[in-house]
Each structure stands twice: as structure tokens, then as C-alpha cells.
Amino acid sequence: MPPRRRGPELTPQDRARIFELKSIGWSPNRIHKQHPEWPISTIKTTIRRAAVRNDHVSRPRPGQPRRLTEEQRDYLYDTVTHTNPHATNRCLLESVNNVVKLRSLQGLMRELGRRKWLQRKRPLLTDRNAQARLKWAQDYEHFTPENWKHVKWSDECSVERGAGVRPVWTFTRPSEQLAAHDVREIRTGKGVRKMFWAIFGFQTRSGLVPLDGDPEARRNGVSGRVIRALYSAFLPEFVGPEDIFMHDNAPVHTAHIVRDVLRELDIEVMPWPPYSPDLNPIENLWALLKAEIYRLYPELERAPDTAATLDLLIRAAKEAWQSIDEDILDRLAVGMSRRVAAVLEAKGWYTKY
What Rg, from alpha-carbon coordinates, does the chain have? Predict the structure, then answer.
């Protein structure tokens, strides 16, 4: 919301009229009702300052005159709000002929309620992707929280030693952190990692299942054969006859052998729009999982990349998964109506999730 802008100053005649009405006993509220074009705060200020004004004319403002005109201030505000929100400070200064310094410009932006924010990252969407997302939302717009209780969400997640730690906030100023050694020390390079799988729904969750690579796969990674064996073992227990199973469009999920086993198990699969991690509530659980690992085992962040560390990482991940409060899982499961509404409002484009 743009900051509240000052309206035009009252003329000396308007101020004289306000003072005249006040002198005959009218209250500021009564004056405002008779003249709604005058804000009540302006009426009160006019009455209060009448004694120090000469013929109701504004006194000269103290200090140096502003270097930027009102037109230049409006131009800068419109530029960063509408025309070019990515404008650099250098470009903004050049647009007003450098009549002010950088610090003055930064102060003006704060005064106008404009500051720069780190741009959010989202998967690249095309018009076709957005239309697919919109159609998905329209198809499930009628789902109630009771309907969403029958959806079971699944996914794989790679957990790497040192990744996913929550940021640390400090009261030490950035300019003082190096001298005070108040820095977050991180290890460079790749850490040991493990792929996991899980499924959850309303009042339901599997354990966190470590996934081993397929020795027959080209890179020994998780393949359709691994997913087929996984689904055969776990889905009959967690997906009932009235449930809908969700997994995304990863190649290992769309492989023929995976689709065949889902048909054999007579499981209804929810169609899933491409590039839509924001619509999958299990993504929220992965973020919570990674943060919880380091709350329970902070030593893992800087542990050496050994087989023992990998074993500890697997044990910590399983424990962290089970420690996530069930209320969080339930709220994510039944809160899907809000995500659907967000996609509809965005016409298939990006949402806040």
C-alpha cells in the first residue's frame, strides 16, 4: 500500500473560514461535516497554528530548502513502484541529475515507504504451465477440508549434511561482525547426502524411508524400479479405497512400470500440474525436517564427511521426521483450499506458498 500522501495546502481564505467557524463555537467535527473536503486533522492543526500565522499564511519552513521538487519526488516514487521496481540507486540519482546524495535518496525511499527486497525465486512458468495450474485449481475448487483429508501426499527429498540450517540472527552490526568474529562459519564443498521418501495425510504419516540407488541405473540413482518397489511395499498400507494419491511429474513417477503398479493396486492418482512445488504441502515438511535435524543434532553441520556422519544423518533425519508435530501435518492437509484459492486468484501464476 503506498504511503499516505500530503494533500494540497489550504489557502489563507480556507484557513480564515475555519478560524471564523471556530470563533463562533463550532467544533472541529461540525466543521468537517459541513466541509468534508477538509480532513479533520487539518482542521485541528489549522486552529492550533492560527495564533502563530500572519493572516493565515504558512510560515517559512525551517532548514535548507529541499533539493528535490515535489515533481521529482513523485517521479522517483512512481518509478520504483510501477515503472521500474528493479531500478538501481545510481539510475535513480541520474534521473534527477544527481541533485542529492545517495544517503539522501535512501532516506527519501524510507520516507516514501519504499525499500528494496530480495526477489523471490520461483520455477520458470510458461503460459502453458500457468493454464495447467489454473485448470487443476478449477478441478479441485469444490474440494472441502473433508475431501482434502482423503488425499495422501508423497515425495522424495535429498538431505545433505550442512544444508537447510536456519539462518542465525545477531544484534551485532554487519560492519562489526568480522572484527567480533560473530560470523557463521560454513564448510565449503558438497557434504554427505541421502535421499528419503515419505507419505503423509490427515492424521497419517509413514516413517522416513531412506532410498538406495539402483545399481542398474546409469548413474546408480533412484529409478522407476526403486519407486515401483517402494510403492508396492507402502501404498497398500497408507492409501485406502477412498483416498487419492499424489506424486509429482518427476520421470521416476511417470515411468511405465510405476504407472502399472498404481493400476494394479487400484489407486486413484491426482493429476498434477507441472512446476508446482508451491502446491505440494509436503515441501513445507521437508523444510521443517532439515531445520529440525540441526536442532536435534547441531554437530552435524560441521561433521566430517565420513560413513559415520552419513549414518548419523540418516538416524537424525528419521528422528526429526517423527518429531514434527501432527497438528502441523493436519493443518497442511486440510488447508489446501487456501492454496487452490491462491492459484485461482493468480490465474495459474505464482502464489505465496
Answer: 30
